[in-house]
Write a structure and sequence with these properties.
88 residues; mainly alpha; 3 helices; rod-shaped
Length: 88
């Protein structure tokens, strides 16, 4: 690739190799854009995976939290965090 860029030294050479260089540049820019897109997708998938883990943990905790919130003694012992919210 460097040898190709070295060839473009004068106007005649630029006319001859210019389209090829533009095509190579466009392909490289396309590859760079794909890499950025893949990186963004990986970050999005990691976030979605973590969110799914959090939802699963919340679902596993729900029955125990419900049992605690219905038991007045346990709810009083664990404090306000276990009390169901009041709707006014």
């Amino acid at each position: 690739m460097t040898s190709l860029f070295k060839q473009v030294t004068d106007e005649a050479s630029a006319r001859q190799h210019g389209p090829e260089i533009r095509a190579i540049s466009a392909r490289l820019n396309g590859h760079a854009a794909q890499m950025k897109e893949m990186d963004a997708a990986k970050k999005g998938m990691a976030f979605a995976s973590r969110a799914a883990e959090i939802v699963q943990i919340q679902q596993e905790m729900a029955p125990e939290l419900l049992r605690i919130s219905r038991d007045a003694a346990l709810a009083a012992h664990l404090g306000d965090a276990m009390r169901p919210p009041k709707i006014n």
